[in-house]
Amino acid sequence: MNRPPSPREIAQGVPLVDDRLLLELLNDLHTADDLVRATVREGFFARLLGQVTGRARRRDTAVKGALVGAQRDTLAWLSSLTGRLAVTDLVVAEITDEVARIRKDVEGLGDRLRWAEDGIRELALVLAELAERTGRGLAEHDERLRRIEGRLAIDDAVRRWRRPRPDPGLGRLFGAVLLAREVAAGPTGEFADTEHGALVEQELVDRILRDPPHPWYDGVRSVAGLLAEATRLLPGDDHRLMVAELLGEGLRDEQTRARGPLSTALARAAATTLRGADPDAAAGAALRGAVGNGTRYVAGSLTAEELLRQLVGEQFAEAAARRSLLHGTRSAS
Predict the structure, then answer these.
(1) 182 in helix, strand or coil?
(2) What three-state secondary structure class fits 20?
(3) Which stretches of the chain are DSSP H helices?
(4) What is the pLDDT of residues 224-250, one digit of tens each?
(5) Is the dihedral of CA 176, 177, 180, 181 positive or negative?
(6) Burial 96-118 (b: 16+ CB within 10 A, else e)
């Protein structure tokens, strides 16, 4: 009998995997309570992080088992990211900011967790090096250079999307939304935060429509049907769980508050189409739960261009909101 693919094998060629693994660390470290009480999660990226860092992800509730930053294998993996530059500047900035906050929490806990300070401090140093090596952080750039950098980032992301090696088998819809998410979280998204946002988003939509790895549909199609089709065509449940978590499932509410309605519905449809669940029923329920009035409105049927405009716009809006929150947090401190 053939062995099912491991999370590491499934994730090959998928964008934003290292971003989501960094955010998985925040699920371990996001409050001081997590330093004294660990919870066991069995999500896709929880398992993948265990493989990447060479240790079992199922943790006991001992205090030291909850502190990911104190473990040498995790720090070694983080250090390897500085050489590969495989993460976006937005996620690096977010997790670095969060680790700085956690350090303050640990320092305020007294002797009870005094041992943890060295681990948190070392994690912060590794992340600082990673932020420096990305060469961007959230620093200001000359507009002309930022425009060039943003264009090159689009070119690189679209090229990998059109001809992935290896092909992760995500299909056109999930592939397109992850492409947009990757671009929005990098230098292109930072440039789009200026008055050029609409032009940048439309350029990406045009590129996605122009030469996709799989042809887009003609005319108008039901959004629920498109979501169901996209989840049905994924190779297996681990693929569904992976793309759902890449779109924010499993993260804290404050990390997904700015996620758009169509992105939310797509993530929830994938997350609930597991173990033989009906994709049509899951997609319909996901849409009903995510879509509302005003900014949460999504039309029942869309052309391919309308669908992509909505999805691309949501990724850029979410990235902009996360940057704004990050700037506000730093200003307050």
Answers:
(1) helix
(2) helix
(3) 7-10, 17-29, 44-52, 72-84, 89-107, 116-134, 143-162, 171-184, 187-192, 197-210, 223-232, 237-246, 253-256, 261-272, 279-290, 304-332
(4) 999 999 999 999 999 999 999 999 999
(5) negative
(6) bbbbbebbebbeeeeeebeebee
Apex 289 CA angle, 283 and 290, nearest 5: 90
Helix (H) or strand (E) holding 329: helix 304-332
Token reading at 308: 């992509």
The dihedral over CA atoms of 308, 313, 314, 316, expressed in degrees to the nearest 10, equals 130
Residue 312 · residue 205 · CB < 8 Å: yes
pTM of the predicted model, to two decimals?
0.74
Contact call for residues 235 and 226 (beta carbons, < 8 A): no
Q: In the block, which residue shows the tokens 């990050």?
A: 326
Q: What angle (nearest 5°) sits at the alpha carbon of residue 22, between those of residues 19 and 24?
A: 110
Rounded Cα distance, 222 and 300, in Å: 6
